[in-house]
Amino acid sequence: MAEKPNIVFIFSDQHRGDTLGSAGHPVVITPSLDRIASEGISFTNCSTNSPLCMPARASMMSGQYVCEHGVWNNDLEADPKGPSHVRNIRDAGYHTGLIGKTHLWIHGARRNPGLTHTKDREHILKDWGFDYIHELTGPIATFRNDSYYTDYLAEKGLLEKHREYMIEYITAWRKGEARPWEEPPCPLDPEDHLDAYTGQKAVDWITGYNQDKPFYLQVLFPGPHDPFDSPQKYRDLYNPKDMPLGNMDWPAEPIPPYAQMVLKWSNLKGMTPAQKKLIRTFYYGKVTLIDEYIGRIYRALEDKGLLENTWIVYSADHGEMLGDHMMSHKIVFYDGALRIPCIFRPPGGVVGWRSKALTDQLDLNASLLDIAGAKPLENSDGRSLAPLIKAGPGSPESQQGKEVAFSEVYGFSMVRNDRYKLVVQTENLKPVEMR
Predict the structure, then answer these.
(1) 287-324 burial string, b = 16+ CB within 10 Å, else e?
(2) Which one of 35, 54, 315, 385 has the fewest beta carbons within 10 angstroms of its own beta carbon?
(3) 32-46, 243-257, 283-297, 366-380: lowest mean pLDDT where?
(4) Paired strand residues for 135
């Protein structure tokens, strides 16, 4: 294999930063991620640049803040020919690939007339810099968009059963009748679940890789994004009575417009502690399923003798409120939605340690470029974490991150430091001349 290190960037959808055994969570079962953390560096103070899928993913790809790339919500798309860390890594001599949900273009036939399959949008991902593309959608979009996953289900005679489950969920949600503590488990065998399919395809890709170039592979798990359709096998690993309750308080007045929207959308008013604990059982089950397949990816690298020359990086686009403050989903600047996992395992591994440095997705972007020896993105505020990793746990430098982190969504912007957050309605502000 080439002298440059391979990079496997594993990126989940809606994984809270505190929901890892290695982060001190008292209940969640994540042995694979805990192992990677025990052999790497965990940045425990990492924020998403947007608590919403497409804005966050556009920042992760482009190294730009939301106000720069312009994707303030999921009805907008970033420019695939603009800045891209993947394109720069490809140009540095890497074979670039993706397996899973990118969400870099708008899903749904209503916004994309004539769209029938994710293959119809592969040209967009090639513009971003990917050589190999095996793109999927998120779980909800599988009822209306075809992909390699729905092809797989159709071939096994399972597509109708899967789509009936999703349609029931979406219909209840649109009527305001969805109760997340009532969500039934996935009706398919565990190995046919969307996240299991994603993980297994990554294993197959690594096992079959035979090119001379080093590779940069993004493994983009669609979960644990709702619906929390964890198979019963994984739900049975948890006892609802053991679940941490979290915050049951309604948000204090005045409630900003974006939070009012999420409260209405969540429809959790009157939720009991027992019901909230049940939701967490379903969510943690999905996290554990993903963790199992991350373990299989790790073993595939190990079996092929690649662990000594491969970086494993784990993160997520944003978190999940999980009933805290009577909210589900995201689009708010509470830590449940804002904080994300951030783990770097260097080639060969190290004795695991933690950094409390304030970081964000722009730093992830800059770090991947640095690791690959690729050209940095111009005018990006991303700061590579590689020097902090190299400095080691005993160095003060390894604990010093950004002075502040920014996050933006739906016309609102947040700035935070280690102690405070300030949120403003950006669209109402008048321009200020900076001197």
Answers:
(1) bbbbbbbbbbbbebbeeeebbebbbbbbbbbbbbbbbb
(2) 35
(3) 243-257
(4) 100
Instruction: Please report the beta strands in 48-114, taking only residues with DSSP state E, as ranges in sequence order.
Output: 95-101
> pTM for this structure?
0.95
Report the amino acid identity of residue 164: E
Single-letter residue type at 241: K
Q: For residue 373, with 0-12 CB atoms within 10 Å meaning exposed, 13-18 middle and 19 or more buried, which class applies?
A: middle
Cα–Cα–Cα angle for 169, 174, 178, rounded to 5 degrees: 50
Cα dist from 399 to 117, 360, 365, 416, whole Å: 45, 14, 19, 17
**Alpha-carbon span 84 to 321, nearest angstrom:** 30
Strand locations in 252-304, DSSP E? none
Contact indicator for 203, 296 with CB cutoff of 8 Å: yes
Q: Tell me the C-alpha distance between 229 and 222, whole Å.
A: 12
The label of the residue with tokens 């990006």 reads 380
The CA-atom distances, in angstroms, between 300 and each of 94, 199, 201, 313, 364 are: 20, 11, 11, 15, 24
Taking only Cα atoms into account, the Rg of the chain, rounded to an integer number of angstroms, comes to: 20
